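Provenance and format

Records in this collection were gathered into a single text stream. Each protein contributes a sequence line and a token line. The two records reproduced below are adjacent in the stream.
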Amino acid sequence: MSRKITIPKAGEGKRGPEGHLGYLVRQANVAVRAAMEKALADIDATPAQFAVLTMIVAYPGVSGAELARLTFLTPQTINVIVRNLVRGGTIEKTAHAVHGRVLRLTATAKGQALLKRCRSRVQEVEGRIAGLAGKDEEKAVRRWLVAVAEELGGR
């Protein structure tokens, strides 16, 4: 005789405040990613492309390897994203002045425009997140998230 298990909604049971902290962080991450995917869908951009463009604009000339570390994506995934962004005319690759095999990435005007459209969509999602806490709480959460990354990841 098999018993059907009812999966609790977010916020209930082990998916609520009494759940494991790592699970709750992952649950929140998945929810943010899904909201970002939805927000970016009609402009044909993915959260990963948004992250890549954001870092290329923030750090012009970044290499693919550096980009992988900055975006928490694998080098293979970065290669696919970069190839698609180059094909779409949103970024350019140039050889490093000293190490010719190292490619430096920069955003084109088209890439800057796409990033601006993406940011306005993502800011709506981030506004919803920030709205769940007051300003002081938000600052504390930001500090805590950074501290977790420093303590556990060292990145």
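Adjacent record:
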Amino acid sequence: MKRVLFISSTGGHLAEMLQLKDMFSKYDYKIITEKTSTNLKLKKQYKNRINYLIYGTKDHMLSYPFKLLANCFKSLYFYLKFHPDYVITTGAHTAGPMCCLAKIFGSRVIYIETFANLNTKTITGTLLYFIADKFIVQWESMKKLYPNSEVGGWIY
């Protein structure tokens, strides 16, 4: 059975990723997201299949670089512990380090650009476009921005 790691930041990115939950049972899977009070309930639902990174936002520029660095080390720990065949992400910043680690260690990366963007690139999408093995957009209009992407349709 393939090992698949699903990772996203909290909020809308996590909501999009959880729309893929019908796929979870087909794989040996783990979920990684940021630890927030709303996400703690996922521990009950997904039991030992979920791990948390430190919640950080770019709005707090003094603490954000330190949280991002800490999350890089936590991502390395989670990656080496699970060693997935695939990393699937809906973004955003939380997923970047994990996707880079996945490429370094030989896992395949599948990036799904957010439903929220019809005509503009995300920062994470821009960075991961070049390392993703499969880059999926949810809107036909996004093909202009990411020419080598596949239109996967809406997750919702």
